[in-house]
Design brief:
A 5-stranded mixed beta sheet has the order 1-3-2-4-5, with helices on both faces. The radius of gyration is 21 Å and the shape is globular. It is built from 8 helices and 5 strands. With 226 residues, the chain is α/β, with parallel strands linked by helices. Helices cover 49% and strands 11% of the residues.
Length: 226
């Protein structure tokens, strides 16, 4: 009997240490998997997220960061790991997490929009957009409560969510204007290229030249990884 009670206690303790996982637990990307235990119903970037947003007529909240970004981890700890904030996010939005180092193309588009409109630039990049992916508001780090002249993240999420329900058409028109300006300023011109093994040698040579074999890291101080 005591052995059974002991096993039950162990199973309960294990459950407490391993919270329910969201769909980012299926991602191989280390930065995304760091958010797998959040109570936020995160989606990776892809068609599934936008299909859900269109089906439910919900705006999309896009959060872009990277593994060595200090304020990305602060916002994750303060807001994304908070059950009350997550409840607001899950109720009003389809939330998408992106690693800028995995998807620099996505990061470039929305960072260009944020800086061009005057929402500010930096990481974490926070973007609110239509189910079609057109941004209508954005910013960077938001504290959990209003301070430093910044609105609190949870109240802001609730306000935007309610505004979308009441004035979604107006917000979509504003987003269309941002999209038009973005298309005009960032012409999309791609070209095909086959991988060249010589690229690896050039990259290795560049890293070797920048490496500090005495103090560690690359380049001069400060050596915060980019």
């Amino acid at each position: 009997m005591r052995a059974l009670q002991f096993l039950l206690l162990l199973s309960c303790a294990a459950g407490a240490e391993h919270p329910a996982m969201n769909r980012l637990a299926q991602e191989k990307n280390p930065y995304l998997s760091q958010h797998a235990g959040n109570p936020v119903d995160w989606f990776p970037w892809g068609d599934e997220a936008f299909a859900k947003a269109r089906k439910e007529n919900k705006p999309v909240f896009l959060s872009i960061g990277y593994a060595t970004c200090h304020w990305c981890h602060v916002m994750e700890r303060e807001s994304f790991a908070d059950p009350k904030t997550a409840e607001i996010m899950n109720r009003y939005f389809v939330s998408v997490k992106v690693d800028r180092e995995e998807r620099p193309d996505v990061d470039k588009i929305y960072m260009t929009a944020a800086t061009g409109v005057g929402w500010g630039g930096g990481w974490p990049l926070s973007i609110w957009m239509t189910p079609e992916g057109k941004p209508f508001f954005g910013g960077t780090y938001f504290p959990p409560e209003s301070r430093w002249g910044q609105p609190g993240f949870a109240p802001l999420m609730e306000r935007i969510g309610k505004m979308w329900a009441e004035r979604g058409a107006d917000m979509s028109r504003d987003a269309e204007k941002v999209a038009d300006a973005l298309r005009a300023s960032v012409p999309v011109a791609g070209r095909e290229a086959k991988p060249d093994p010589a690229w690896l040698d050039k990259a290795a040579d560049a890293l070797a030249a920048a490496y500090d074999d005495k103090q560690g890291g690359f380049g001069g101080a400060p050596k915060f990884p980019m």
